Amino acid sequence: GAGVSQSPRYKVAKRGQDVALRCDPISGHVSLFWYQQALGQGPEFLTYFQNEAQLDKSGLPSDRFFAERPEGSVSTLKIQRTQQEDSAVYLCASSLMADLYNEQFFGPGTRLTVL
Amino acid sequence: DAKTTQPTSMDCAEGRAANLPCNHSTISGNEYVYWYRQIHSQGPQYIIHGLKNNETNEMASLIITEDRKSSTLILPHATLRDTAVYYCISLRAGSYQLTFGKGTKLSVIP
User: Which of A36, B21, B60, B90 is the most exposed place for a label (fewest CB within 10 A)?
Assistant: First the structure.
């Protein structure tokens, strides 16, 4: 596809369930980012990958959040034992190069609702 | 990266120029000014960026003051599809972590 895709687009989870959110970046993009966007707020950085290496996970809010990109393309954000405060839109973005800033291309996001 | 300040909301008549201000008074010499926008229920979209010279592309123009303490994003002929939240972001050269803030909600009115 031409852009970043994310699945599912919507996810409802009961408190305590584990969830996995998928991101398919633009083919050939080295860098991949995850952001969390609470209702009415701007997106907040979670983590950054350069190929398969997770170089920055400073934004992950707790050790219940885990991200991986094992083959340097598709990435999964996993949230264990979900809590109501995890309800948000999770955005994935990719960009072409790692060291130089390049425009980040965002997917449509996954809206997670924790009941 | 420097903190940016934007008005919470603005209105613009369809077909008129939309001028969105941003204050970044503590910006340092190696920090760029970036603009993204987010249309409802979509991910953010890159618009334009600049360091100290004015920039123009097919979407917008970016005017940066000579002292670089503020900038203005100009959409020359706003359409209803330009209704969105516009984020002004300062980013140090070589950095990647976008700090969005709350942005300006632009409403284009018919």
Answer: B21
